[in-house]
């Protein structure tokens, strides 16, 4: 990590870690949003949020990445998505 930050690491070898699972319900509850509010705020369908939380489906890799960003920095995602509207 130190080599990467200092510019000594081979940046072409860097790979993003995409988690196998994401606890959508915990992320949503930490933001104190209903399923509908969470879906609307972050561009998911209500059905997808329900399916993820009830274990009927797992988010695709790209959704898992977005969900992890939402978990850590929901303000940034809201700002970016708000600007896109």
Describe it.
The protein has helices at residues 2-6, 24-30, 35-42, 46-53, 61-72, 74-84. It is mostly helical and 85 residues long. The N and C termini lie far apart (36 Å). The model has no long low-confidence stretch (mean pLDDT 90).
Quick structural summary:
The protein is mostly helical and 85 residues long. It has helices at 2-6, 24-30, 35-42, 46-53, 61-72, 74-84.
What's the end-to-end separation, in Å?
Answer: 36 Å
Determine Rg (CA atoms, Å): 15 Å
Largest sheet: none
The helix-strand sequence is HHHHHH
Low-confidence stretches: none
The helix/strand class is mainly alpha
Oligomer kind: single chain
- What is the 3D shape? elongated
Strand content: under 5%
Number of helices: 6
Can you tag this structure with a few keywords?
6 helices, 85 residues, mainly alpha, single chain, elongated, 0% strand
Question: What is the topological layout?
Answer:
Layout: H1 2-6, H2 24-30, H3 35-42, H4 46-53, H5 61-72, H6 74-84
Helix pairs in contact: 3-4, 5-6
